[in-house]
Known about the structure:
Blueprint: H1 3-10, H2 12-23, H3 26-42, H4 53-75, H5 81-84, H6 94-109, H7 112-123, H8 128-135, H9 139-157, H10 166-179
Amino acid sequence: MSDFSCLLEAQIPPLRRYARALLRDASRADDLIQDTLLRALAKQHLWQPGTNLRAWLFTLMHNLHVNLVRQSLREGAMVDVEDVSADLVATTDPTASRQLREIEEAIAQLPIEQRQVLLLIGLEGIRYDEAAVILGVPVGTVRSRLSRARESLRKLSGRDEEGSPPVVAAAEAAVSAEAA
């Protein structure tokens, strides 16, 4: 196995996590991951060793996802998020399952641009500048979208900053860490 293949294989778990959170459908997410990996292998000559492979892969995935959304809009094939949402696994804390479901539903209501930024920064722990490169937007736009996503989540969850759900708290922690 080549060095590139080993590096690529190590990035599959974060790609899977992001794709599944973004698409909310394991089958479609797996298809997106497969397409991303195929494109990465086909274009591996464009990747420069020593650069951020993770950011490059997320950029490929983002571009593929945008192309798929545009294609589905042209074809008129839109899928209702509620129809494809997966049930969360219950934990030993019965309220945790309910809270996670509420967070999942709130995130699903966010516009795709805000959801992408929230998932990249809050879930994947990607830096603002890397998220900007992945999404092809300025860093200020990333900050703005994250701020709007956090505010929308607060409103949707009916909580103030002190009672923020874990995803909002993670996003706020990312904002605080980046600002420091």
